[in-house]
Design brief:
The complex is a heterotrimer of chains A (about 280), B (about 450) and C (about 300). With about 280 residues, chain A is an all-alpha fold. Helices cover about 75% and strands about 0% of the residues of chain A. Chain A is built from 13 helices and no strands. In chain A, α8 (about 165-175) runs antiparallel to α9. Chain B starts with a helix and ends with a helix. Chain B contains 19 helices and 12 strands. In chain B, strands 3, 6, 11 and 12 form a 4-stranded mixed beta sheet that branches. Chain C has a single domain (about 60-305), classed as MetI-like (MetI-like fold, Orthogonal Bundle). The longest helix of chain C is centred in the first third of the chain and has 32 residues, at about 85-115. Classes of the chains: A mainly alpha (about 280), B alpha/beta (about 450), C mainly alpha (about 300). At the B-C interface, α1, α3, α4, α11 and α18 of B face α3, α7 and α13 of C.
């Protein structure tokens, strides 16, 4: 029979399963693409089949300069927030995982507790605070809450992860003369590829798609983020479903592409930090 | 020693952050305060918020829901007209979608950062803001210009005998029907509910669903309940129950009968299967109507405008509308209609109430009304508009000849009761409650919420 | 030999001297402060204020549209205790938690193992598998409302073709399972990458050593993979627990903004009471209760599943 044949059968089965799953997870995307090329009228009578002839009106409606601006705003806000989250959370998680000081455990629990705060609870206090320092309707004003709301989860994941890293590596580094900061920079961080990339993906998605806080904090068109823009579009074209679907499609494309290319980095980052030494 | 120092530093840091948050919050909270509603006096503009200095550069903030592309054009033109005649005033408008608007306005109000001008649907929702002293009393100003508005439109925003907003949209919620289906099946527009039911039987026999209904968001179905109870009991029954006059309650038989009739219709198959799971906003019920699979749809006055944009050929060839039929033996008369609308109100904290009122007048004048009618096909509740579209004209007739326009119950009633009304009606359609139970639930909460009236 | 490698790596280091830097705390106050401060400032300003104010407001009668608040003592909590709608909502959250942990975690594990196989085209599969997470909630909600429509939906037309009668998915009893399906659809990919990250963390040498010892695939999985994945699984479970208890988005969107008994969650109930019925004090009591509940359950879970070997 041979190992080779067994492996081939196994692979074929795995492939089949993968394809089925890909269909389930991917078909809405196909739905979006197909219907983005249909006009309102055709959509209402014929949702599921291919358009009789491609209609570009939806794309014309969506791809206006405003939309680009919303996209840019989202990139700025999401990128900045995620960067700050990673830096700030990894620093404090490091102390939770490796250093001892009074009140450490209490602090850890206090921060983890932040994960339990329901979504709308902080809406009014946050808005009140930001408006008193004049940061409503600004992108900067969005970053503060976005970072804060995601710190608990980032700290949770990172602390668990850091704790799992074998101490021998750091001990070796200490013997070689590295200080705390050095250990942090040169040993812990490079090894944390998987955890950091998980956090990056998770928080980026959360912030990219965040609507509730953005809705309350942003007024002017120039400062809107993508979810606001899409929602506004939904209101403007409330009966024009294909246009809304097109907007959704275009809004998600950048993230899809980003993930497609970022995957590589994740895998590479892992193999770089070979654990057993 | 050092460990303790560290602990202190950490505690201090967290507290510092927290205090910064708190103090910032309470500062603006105090500024917003104010329980007494301020009024705009006839001559100068003296209000709680500050003094208006003419000649200085002023910015007015305007939040509204005219998000739709065509309606936004109209509003923009009004603003341009206003800014042209008031060169020292700049208007910042924020158009939004319905739901986000409500959350945003509520949050802004709570934080004392509300806009100068905002919109409402009148009734209990607006009343909540009035009771908290957040709305400027513009009653005098409105009375000065009241003759260009239809009485029914103004009545939506009358609370405790005063007008708190200026209407910019108002209309009835009639029964829209497919004229082609009626022609094919030889049906006549019904005058009574009994005739309507007879029509439905014929329609059903031909494999068509009598009513398109998508009640997922709970308000579309409520329209039918209100119509039926209005026709059964007449407008006064509901008002008496609301005002707690005499022995009137929400368990009046008109409400129970309305519930019974709805359940009767559901069981007879007058509605699509699973209507409570169909979503109106994403088109579920509209598609049934447009595709001819359903013959009628009970909807608000915006439907005319939506249909025109969505399905122009259906609009031209198939769309008809009629006033909700009367019930034989019921107390309701044909000139009592169900409808609603929107109006602009001014915040009590507005620093420039005079200019704000001027803006509101421009946003609701006859030039606006004509523009809105021509561009977007919307009925505004403002008189003197030359309506070219026949269906829109029909809608206006309903408005003009109405002796009374009942605002949607969920808008009219205090918010908690309004939500309950939608929920009980939803349950009636879903056959998960009885008409008696629904009425009893409403009455129980009414006793809690309407006690002071 | 493989078993020895399975032991927690650091437990073998008891013979090595404890790291110097870990015992010399006094010198490092400054650095610790530096590392801790930024996070605390953010956290203190927004999160702490938020939750403290929520607790304060929960003791007030407050409409939520002005600064008028009156002290109400425990009134809100007493009312909450007798509010059947709230308990109903909590039940729904519990159902969500159970379904999430029971379905999403194993599902995610299977997917993670699948993409770990390094088949040809893995990159493609990994991206497509992850797509559900990339759409915003509103987008996902709208799409699935369209899919679920009993007359014009994809599923309805499929069922028609098969000769079955279509179901009203988002109505009554079937609304909860229908939405649960969409939630699983959306979140399994996310847990898939968390678990995949955990999988990649397992050094391949262990597997090699095991194979040399004669272990087959199944044994590898149950004796090596799973045990070493436990920390990751634990983290994922906590995230799910907390996320499910707090959940708002899809239930709100897919029920047209008006969830009813079968689909009301604590978070949607809180939103309804606070923002649409103008009972913000009561809503704050709901939020505070949610917070306490979440915290208690998470702590319990972490305690029960704590590392039995002393850290």
């Amino acid at each position: 029979m041979g190992v080779l044949l067994k492996r081939k059968i196994k692979n074929t089965i795995l492939y089949a399963i993968s394809i089925v799953i890909a269909l389930i997870t991917g078909f809405p995307f196909v739905f979006l693409v197909i219907n983005s090329f249909k006009g309102m009228g055709e959509y209402l009578t014929n949702i599921w089949r291919l358009p009789s002839e491609p209609f570009f009106g939806n794309y014309q409606l969506v791809l206006k300069p405003d939309f680009l601006r919303y996209f840019l705003n989202s990139v700025i806000v999401s990128g900045t927030s995620v960067f700050i989250i990673v830096v700030v959370s990894s620093m404090i998680s490091f102390t939770f995982a490796r250093l001892k000081y009074r009140g450490r455990n209490l602090l850890y629990f206090a921060i983890i507790a932040g994960m339990m705060i329901p979504v709308h609870t902080t809406l009014i206090p946050t808005f009140t605070l930001l408006s008193s320092i004049g940061l409503t309707d600004t992108l900067t004003g969005l970053v503060g809450p976005y970072v804060s709301y995601n710190i608990p989860i980032a700290v949770f994941i990172l602390t668990q992860f850091f704790r799992e890293i074998p101490k021998e590596l750091e001990e070796a580094a200490i013997i070689d003369g590295c200080g705390i900061v050095g250990t942090f920079k040169n040993i812990i961080l490079p090894l944390s590829g998987p955890a950091i990339s998980t956090i990056v993906v998770y928080t980026f998605l959360n912030i990219w798609n965040e609507f509730i806080n953005a809705n309350v904090l942003i007024n002017s068109t120039g400062k809107k983020t993508l979810p606001l823009g899409i929602r506004e579009f939904y209101g403007m074209q409330s009966v024009n479903i294909p246009a809304v679907l097109t907007a959704i499609l275009i809004g998600s494309l950048p993230v899809i592409l980003l993930y497609f290319f970022a995957q590589e980095k994740v895998v590479n980052g892992l193999t770089q930090g070979a654990v057993k030494g | 020693m050092n460990r303790q120092f560290l602990a202190c530093v950490l505690a201090a840091a967290m507290t510092a952050g927290a205090l910064a948050g708190c103090s910032g919050a309470s500062k603006s909270g105090a500024a917003a305060g104010g329980t007494a509603a301020s009024t705009v006096s006839a001559g100068g503009a003296e209000s709680q918020g500050g003094e208006a200095k003419t000649g200085e550069n002023i910015t007015l903030t305007l939040w509204h829901i005219e998000n739709d592309a065509k309606r936004q054009e109209v509003v923009k033109r009004c603003i341009e007209r206003f800014e042209a005649s008031h060169p020292n005033v700049k208007v910042e408008q924020v158009p939004m979608e319905n739901d986000p608007y409500k959350t945003k306005l509520t949050t802004a109000m709570a934080a004392g950062q509300e806009p100068d001008i905002f919109i409402s649907w009148g009734g209990g929702w607006l009343q909540s803001f009035v009771e908290e002293g957040k709305v400027l009393d513009i009653d005098q100003e409105v009375r000065k210009i009241s003759d260009i508005y239809h009485e029914s439109a103004l009545s939506l925003f009358e609370l405790d005998g005063k007008y708190w907003a200026v209407p910019f949209r108002a209309g009835a919620a009639p029964v829209y029907y497919n004229t082609e289906i009626y022609k094919e099946l030889g049906l006549k527009v019904p005058e009574t509910v009994e005739e309507l039911e007879a029509n439905c039987e014929v329609i059903k026999e031909h494999g068509i669903i009598p009513f398109a209904e998508g009640n997922s968001s709970q308000w579309p179905g409520a329209l039918t309940f209100i119509w039926l109870s209005l026709r059964e009991g007449g407008s006064q029954t509901f008002l008496d129950a609301y005002n707690r006059t005499g022995n009137a309650t929400f368990e009046d038989e008109s409400f129970i009968k309305a519930g019974q009739r709805i359940q009767d219709w559901v069981k007879k198959g007058y509605y699509p299967e699973g209507l409570n799971g169909i979503n109106y906003d994403t088109g579920g019920s509209r598609m049934l109507f447009y595709s001819g699979q359903a013959a009628h749809i009970v909807q608000t006055n915006s439907f005319v405008s939506n249909c025109k944009s969505e399905k122009p050929d259906f609009y031209e060839k198939n769309l008809g509308l009629f006033n909700y039929p009367v019930i034989e033996g019921g107390k309701g008369k044909a000139d009592e209609i169900l409808g609603g609308g929107n109006g602009y109100s001014i915040s009590a904290s507005c620093k420039n109430p005079k200019e704000a009122m001027e803006l509101v007048k421009v946003l609701t004048d006859q030039e606006y009304a004509q523009d809105m009618s021509d561009t977007a096909g919307i009925l505004t509740g403002i008189k003197g508009v030359e309506i070219k579209d026949s269906k829109l004209k029909q809608m206006e007739e309903l408005l003009v000849h109405a002796s009374y326009m009942q605002n949607f119950y969920d808008q009219f009633l205090p918010t908690e009761l309004g939500n309950l009304h939608k929920q009980t009606t939803y349950d009636l359609f879903g056959l998960t409650t009885t008409p008696e139970q629904a009425a009893a639930d409403m009455e129980a909460m009414a006793q809690k919420d309407l006690v002071k009236k | 030999m493989a078993e020895r490698m399975l032991q927690r790596p650091h437990s073998g280091s008891s013979s090595v001297k404890r790291s110097d830097y870990m015992s010399k705390q006094n010198k490092h106050t400054g650095i610790i402060t530096l590392f801790v401060l930024p996070a605390l400032l953010f956290y203190g300003t927004f999160n702490v204020v938020g939750i403290v104010r929520t607790f304060i407001y929960s003791f007030m009668d407050w409409k939520g549209i002005s600064a008028n608040r009156t002290f109400a003592g425990f009134g809100n909590y007493i009312e909450l205790f007798g509010d059947s709608l709230f308990w109903n909502a909590m039940m729904n959250n519990v159902i969500l938690v159970i379904v999430s942990v029971a379905i999403q975690l194993p599902g995610a594990l299977l997917l993670a193992l699948l993409i770990n196989q390094e088949l040809k085209g893995t990159r493609f599969f990994r991206t497509v598998f992850f797509m559900p997470m990339l759409l915003s909630t509103v987008a996902t909600g709208i799409m699935w409302i369209l899919f679920y429509d009993p007359y014009f939906g994809l599923i309805a037309s499929l069922m028609q073709k098969l000769g079955l009668k279509s179901i009203a998915f988002l109505e009554g009893r079937s609304s909860m399972p229908s939405i649960l399906f969409v939630i699983c659809w959306q979140f399994i990919p996310f847990y898939m990458i968390i678990l995949k990250a955990g999988l990649t963390n397992i050094p391949t040498d262990i597997y090699e050593a095991a194979r040399i010892d004669g272990a087959n695939g199944k044994q590898c999985f149950w004796k090596i993979t799973l045990p070493l994945l436990v920390p990751t699984l634990r983290s994922a479970a906590v995230l799910q627990l907390v996320g499910s208890l707090k959940y708002f988005d899809l239930f709100y969107v897919m029920m047209g903004g008006a969830p009813n008994k079968a689909t009301e969650l604590m978070a949607t109930y809180m939103y309804k009471k606070g923002f649409t019925e103008f009972r913000m004090g009561y809503a704050s009591a709901i939020a505070a209760s949610m917070f306490i509940l979440c915290f208690a359950i998470a702590c319990m879970f972490l305690y029960i599943t704590r590392d039995k070997e002393a850290a």
